[in-house]
Design brief:
With 297 residues, the chain is α/β, with parallel strands linked by helices. 43% of the residues lie in helices and 18% in strands. The protein is built from twelve helices and twelve strands. The chain has a seven-stranded parallel beta sheet, sandwiched between helices. The protein has a three-stranded mixed beta sheet with strand order 7-8-12. The protein has a two-stranded antiparallel sheet with strand order 9-11. Helix 1 links the parallel strand 1 and strand 2. It starts with a strand and ends with a helix. 45% of the residues are buried.
Amino acid sequence: MSILVCGATGFVGQQIALAAQRKTHRVRALVRGGSSNPKTGPLTAAGIDIATGDLTQPDTLAPACAGVDTVICTATTMPTGVNDGLRRVDRDGVLALIEAADRGGVRKFVYTSYTGNARLDSPLETAKRDCEARLLESGMDVVILRPSYFMEMWLGPHLGFDAQTATARIYGDGIGKISYISAFNVAEFAIAAAERATGKQAILEMGGPEALSQLEAVRIFERVLGRTFQLEFVPVEALRQQHQSADPLQKTFAALMLAYAHGDVIPGAAALAGEYSIALRSIEDYAASVRDQQAGA
């Protein structure tokens, strides 16, 4: 099977490309700047073919899709959203890729979206749902991955959860439960969805092994690390005000944080993982890996 990975220089996309290559699939990575892009090092070292292309330049996409059985797309400009990226790349660029794949005879398209429970208006919401709709109208077999919140991101320093300093930013009251999922598991789902028969259309709502609140996640980290965390609470009203912003990135983050504060429970997540033969990583597993990284630093 030949696979084109779009987003292969990002964390999840790179995991997908490398895993697919290890499984002896013929893997091509669509990369802006081609082999001159400094982020292609691990890909080229693994023997992955680098296709020069840019989602904002539709004429570069058809050659990248030529001769490909399956496209896996994880491309996003989050978290920076630079240069109006949520519109230009996440929406218009991915729509152009879907069009090129559909016209080019690609058999299957695996698309990484995000949880179907988050429906607040934002440029990311527009981009993801518009791409989902276009895929469902296409002639390809379609798998839409809708992961809940990534534990490595939402329980990481970029969003105020810093195990190094034992501080945690809590959005809302911290009580709403979330089916945190590991980015590594999302990559595994993408590969499994590409390899197996999934039917004409499949939408996979994906979560981790258990639904935990932000405060419960803090308590797990405290127990594993043997430290007490200092908490900073961000009121829901402040997030609602941010959601009124005209800035597309600020509006998007506020929408995600409001949905996060409310909670995101994915029923049947463990059963779905079992169906796809995926061992879900728990918050405790993740906390232990953070502890081990700190010990080795």
